[in-house]
Amino acid sequence: MSEYKRPTSEIEFKQNFAQKKPLMNPTEAAFESSKCLFCYDAPCITACPTGIDIPLFIKQINSGNLTGSAKTIYESNWLGNACGKICPTQELCEGACVFNHQDLPPIQIGRLQNFASSAAIKEEKKLFSPGTPNGRKVAIIGSGGAGIACACELRTMGYEVDIYEAKSKPSGLTLYGIAAYKITNQEVEDEINFLEKQMGLNFICDHPIENKTQLEKLEADYDAIFLGVGIGATARIGLPGEDKTNVVGAVEFIEELRLKHHHLTVPKKVVVIGGGNTAMDAASQSARMGAESVVLAYRRSKEDMGAYGFEYKLAISAGVESLFNAQPIKIIGNGKATGVQFIKTQVINGKLENIAGSEFILESDLVIKATGQAKQKHFLELIEGLELDNKKRIVVNESSFQCTNPKYFAGGDAVNGGAEVVNAAFDGKMAAQGIEQWLNR
Amino acid sequence: MPNLNIDFAGIKAPNPFWLASAPPTNTGYQIMKAFDAGWGGAVWKTLGVPVINVSSRYGSTNYGGNRMAGFNNIELITDRPLADNLREIEEVKKYFPDHAVIASLMVETKEEWMQIIKDVENAGADGIELNFGCPHGMCERGMGSAVGQEPAVLQTIVEWVMEAANIPVITKLTPNISHIVDPGLAAVRGGTNAISLINTIKSIVGIDLDTYAPYPVVDGKGTNGGYCGPAVKPIALEMLKELTKHPEIQNIPVSGIGGIETWRDVVEFILLGAGSVQVCTAVMHYGFGIVREMKTGLEQFMIEKGYETIYDFKGKALPNVTEWKHLNLKHKVVANIDTNKCIGCDLCYIACDDGAHQAIRIPEENSNRIPEIIEENCVGCNLCSLVCPVEACITMEQRDNGKEHLTWDEKTKANEIPTSFNDDRAGGKHHFVPTVADALKHRK
Ligand SMILES: Cc1cc2nc3c(=O)[nH]c(=O)nc-3n(C[C@H](O)[C@H](O)[C@H](O)COP(=O)(O)OP(=O)(O)OC[C@H]3O[C@@H](n4cnc5c(N)ncnc54)[C@H](O)[C@@H]3O)c2cc1C
Ligand SMILES: Cc1cc2nc3c(=O)[nH]c(=O)nc-3n(C[C@H](O)[C@H](O)[C@H](O)COP(=O)(O)O)c2cc1C
Ligand code: SF4
Ligand code: SF4
Ligand code: SF4
Question: What is this structure's pTM?
Answer without folding.
Answer: 0.94
